[in-house]
């Protein structure tokens, strides 16, 4: 997960009101190397491409093809460059084996990527997605008097008919997708960074396996016309609305969306807003300038939960048992998530969403879910990363901004402590 700012420069002045903000979620699989590399480099690679191609100084056009294509090219080029570096290493017989293995790790694992960039001058947010993480915008509906969900990305799996049609046209006559599981030759997503076993010809997969301790290749009768995955994103955009009820956006990995619907997630944030105020506390910003504030939570949900009682000391109790059941198809105990179990007890909105995804006011359920240890934990919960971005936030006075800084900062510290606890 990352967040940052692309600074607008000109020959005559620097205008911070034209700086673009970015937020990203990188959900890795089959190892952490690809997602770690993306987190460290991809947002800045995209920012460089946006700047070099004049995207930050263009007159606004809805769904500007130049900007959309620039983002798409940046994604594809990054993935291509990763693979090209590894190809050269594999061909260099004089290269130390350990160096090749280290470089190879970047493409043996894989990662989804969800990226959002906000243009404050034109009040436009653009979302690019590869994989099954998801972005959902919360927008105020004055008629119903509540926030409603607007989906900003589409899950790219074998359950997405557009993806089925795309892959079928690229690989005619092949049975690539299992209609029951939605998997693409065994993998859940139809777009991803890395994942060399679905992109390389078999001779390279076998070379990595035979000489560099790579994973066992997919069956020869499956990998006939690679690549089967792509890192080209779908890109959407929307004009942000401000006012008394400004837009917000939830970005999260699939581990969250597996448990919470789009509508329930937006309702959960609205419940949080009824108690807390989304406020930008950065003291070095101009006062009264519309801007954004993000409340992140990230942590691999795969380790010990011994300190969780201290992390969530105020959790409400619920004795309801009917929403916990054994899923015979999945072969594991599951739980239903609904608004009746939502509770507002965390001043970090990301942690608030996490708590309610994993049990809400059912304290025993929450404690149980986060206490299950590896390797069994993989059947209980997936990795969860959450970012909540509030648009159109105004700080009234500099003093108020500094005063408000303490609680979000404390929330971030608690989020980091929770993440460390979950890692063990």
TrEMBL record:
Residues 1-391 form the PPM-type phosphatase domain. One of its GO terms (cellular component) is mitochondrion. It comes from the Eukaryota. GO terms for molecular function: [pyruvate dehydrogenase (acetyl-transferring)]-phosphatase activity. Gene3D superfamilies: PPM-type phosphatase domain. This is Protein serine/threonine phosphatase 2C. It comes from Polychaeton citri CBS 116435. The lineage of its organism: Eukaryota, Fungi, Dikarya, Ascomycota, Pezizomycotina.
């Amino acid at each position: 997960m990352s967040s940052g700012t692309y600074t607008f420069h000109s020959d005559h002045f620097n205008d911070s009101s034209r700086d673009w903000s970015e937020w990203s979620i990188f959900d890795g699989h089959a190892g952490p190397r690809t997602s770690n590399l993306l987190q460290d480099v991809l947002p800045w690679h995209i920012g460089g491409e946006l700047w070099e191609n004049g995207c930050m100084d263009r007159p606004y056009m809805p769904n500007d093809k130049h900007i959309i294509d620039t983002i798409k090219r940046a994604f594809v080029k990054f993935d291509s460059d990763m693979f090209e570096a590894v190809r050269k290493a594999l061909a260099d017989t004089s290269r130390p084996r350990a160096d090749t293995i280290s470089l190879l790790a970047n493409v043996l694992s894989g990662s989804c990527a969800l990226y959002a960039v906000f243009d404050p001058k034109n009040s436009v947010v653009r979302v690019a997605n590869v994989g099954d993480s998801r972005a959902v915008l919360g927008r105020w509906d004055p008629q119903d008097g509540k926030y409603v969900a607007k989906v900003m990305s589409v899950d790219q799996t074998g359950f997405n008919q557009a993806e089925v049609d795309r892959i079928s046209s690229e690989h005619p006559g092949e049975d690539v997708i299992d209609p029951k599981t939605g998997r693409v030759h065994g993998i859940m997503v139809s777009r991803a960074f890395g994942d060399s076993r679905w992109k390389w010809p078999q001779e390279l997969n076998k070379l990595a396996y035979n000489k560099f301790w790579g994973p066992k290749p997919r069956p020869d009768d499956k990998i006939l016309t690679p690549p089967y995955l792509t890192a080209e994103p779908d890109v959407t955009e929307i004009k942000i609305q401000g006012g008394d009820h400004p837009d917000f956006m939830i970005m999260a990995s699939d581990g969250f969306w597996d448990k919470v619907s789009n509508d329930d997630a937006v309702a959960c944030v609205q419940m949080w807003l009824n108690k807390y105020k989304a406020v930008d506390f950065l003291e070095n910003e101009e006062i009264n300038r519309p801007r954004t504030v993000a409340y992140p939570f990230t942590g691999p949900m795969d380790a010990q939960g011994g300190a969780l009682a201290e992390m969530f000391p105020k959790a409400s109790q619920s004795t309801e048992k009917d929403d916990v059941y054994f899923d015979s198809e999945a072969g594991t105990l599951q739980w239903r998530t609904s608004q009746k179990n939502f509770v507002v007890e965390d001043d970090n909105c990301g942690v608030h969403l996490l708590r309610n995804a994993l049990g809400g006011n059912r304290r025993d359920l929450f404690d149980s879910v986060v206490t299950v240890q590896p390797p069994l934990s993989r059947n209980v919960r997936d990795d969860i990363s959450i970012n909540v971005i509030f648009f159109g936030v105004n700080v009234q006075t500099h003093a108020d901004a500094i005063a408000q800084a303490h609680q979000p900062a404390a929330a971030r510290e608690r989020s980091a402590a929770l993440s460390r606890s979950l890692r063990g």
